[in-house]
Design a protein that fits this description.
Blueprint (H helix, E strand, L loop, with lengths): L1 E8 L4 E8 L4 H7 L17 E6 L2 E2 L8 H5 L2 E3 L4 E2 L3 E5 L4 H13 L15
Parallel strand pairs: 1-7
Antiparallel strand pairs: 1-2, 3-5, 3-7, 4-6
The structure holds FE2/S2 (inorganic) cluster.
Length: 123
C-alpha cells in the first residue's frame, strides 16, 4: 500500500513530500527519492532519525531505542518503522528524544570529578 508523507525538516527549513510504500522502512523509502534526513545506526537504536509525529500511524514493532511511552507521545524512529497511513512528521531538536529518554537517568546519577579517578597501584 502506498502512503503520502510530508516531513518538515526544521533545521534545514525544508518541507519534503513523497509517496512511500508501507512495506519499506520510511527512511529508506525517502532516501530512494533523494530526501536527505539525519540518521546514524539505521537499526532503531540511536535516536538520530527520531521524528515528531504530527499525524498518522506507524508500525514501530522493530524499534528498540524508543520507549513505548515516547512512541505514544508522538515520536518515531523512521529508520526502523513503516507507514500505516499518510504521515505528517517533523524533525526533532538535536538530541530531543535522547534527552527525553535518557536525560532523567543522568540527572539522578550526578558524578563528581573524583569519582572518575582510578586508584593507581604502586609496587
Ligand atoms: S538511525 Fe539510529 S535509530 Fe534510526
Amino acid at each position: 500500500m502506498t502512503y503520502h508523507i510530508r516531513i518538515r525538516d526544521r533545521q534545514a527549513d525544508k518541507i519534503y513530500e513523497a509517496d512511500i510504500e508501507g512495506d519499506r522502512y520510511i527512511l529508506e523509502s525517502l532516501e530512494l527519492q533523494g530526501v536527505d534526513l539525519p540518521f546514524a545506526c539505521r537499526n532503531g537504536a540511536c535516536t538520530a532519525c527520531a521524528m515528531r509525529v504530527n499525524s498518522g500511524k506507524l508500525d514501530q514493532h522493530e524499534v528498540m531505542g524508543l520507549s513505548k511511552s515516547l512512541q505514544q507521545e508522538g515520536y518515531a524512529l523512521i529508520c526502523s518503522s513503516y507507514a500505516l497511513s499518510d504521515l505528517d512528521l517533523e524533525t526533532q531538536d538535536e538530541d530531543e528524544v535522547y534527552q527525553l529518554q535518557f536525560g532523567q537517568f543522568f540527572a539522578k546519577r550526578k558524578r563528581h570529578w573524583f569519582q572518575f579517578a582510578f586508584p593507581i597501584d604502586h609496587d
